[in-house]
Amino acid sequence: MKTSVRCIAIAAAFGSLAAPLMAETIRIAHIDPFSGPAAAIVVNANRTLRMVVDISNRDKWAGSNTLEVVNFDGKGSPQDSMQQLKNATDQGIRYIVQAHSSAVGLGLIDAINHYNERNPGKELVYLNVTNGAPEMTNEKCSFWHFRFDGNQDMKTEALTAFIAEQKNVKKVYLINQNYPTGQQTSVGVRKGLKARRPDIEIVGDDLHPMLAVKDFSPYVAKIRASGADAVVTANWSADLTLLLKAAQESGLKTAFYTYNAATTGVPTALAGAKVEDVKLVTYWNPNDDLVTAKTVMEPFRAKYDDDFVVMPYYSTIRLLTQAATNAKSFEPMAVAKAMEGLKVKSLNGEVEMRKSDHQIQQPQVVAAWTKTDGKDLKYDLEKTGYGWKTLQKFEPFVSALPTSCQMKRPG
Description:
The protein has helices at 2-18, 39-59, 78-90, 102-118, 152-164, 180-196, 217-226, 238-249, 266-273, 290-304, 312-327, 332-339, and strands at 25-32, 66-73, 95-98, 125-128, 145-147, 171-177, 201-208, 230-233, 255-258, 278-282, 343-346, 349-353, 360-361, 364-371, 386-394. By secondary structure, it is an alpha/beta fold.
């Protein structure tokens, strides 16, 4: 009798050890400028992140675990963002999302590398959603950093391949914000066009202070005087809307090739200024797959009266949760290892997190600003009656550039 009781007790003890771990709440710190000139874009991005997290929790992407987003206002400054990183780590948060400013992002890579060296077993993972500076997955690459959007060189590969096929384009003017992504755009466009269409002349190349120019008419006057057939710009937020507004007011008819014309505020500015000849290189056009797009576009507008446009947040959470599922853990070290080389289905098709540099590989499209028809071109932006019509789609291999990354992996 005593032996039977002892056996039952031992079996119960081992049973408790074998039981699954209790479900966790995994907090994600979103560090971005929630105040200042870029606030409207960040609010839209944060809503997008939160909606995808809601989908993840509803559909059990992370099993019984629940994801939660915590906001930290980095004010667009590296110094303030580093302080918010400290605030997040003080709260025990180990996943960091940041997307708006490559300068901040480069600072986060260094800070997180140093933090993880000093705190083994309590590592952080940096989920970079849309920062485009190529060095982040080249010479500045880190095991703890993953990028979920194509870098600026990858987007430029697709854009210059498209421009090269436009026989009417003979002269190109470059105008960009004076920070890492803007600078790299200038370099990349020059290189891409020289390789594909050496006959195209670069007739202007301006770098201006970021989010500081109030009147772009002097720049537009230079564009007009140059005789440019096309303008290429990676400007975003007010720097793009004010540039396009100045172009329209001056009567400039030159085509604009952009990287950020779908972001918050720009569609309204385009429609208000009646600007028409605008192209966009991007990662996803909801009008290309109306069935898939419906799952996010309509619920997002119903909930927020806003548009779901920053698709890489979907890929971020999809890859994160699948990696955790494969690793059977949300420990950052295990998740980072499991995310390397991982492929998942996102809204724009299959995407892959390349192991060599932690740079996502995904399709790119070039689209034109076009009046919607409610059928084939169903989804407009910001209730303008205009949206994006895809002119050409590029499969991932077209923009899959080599990397100079020399990844240093733990152990």
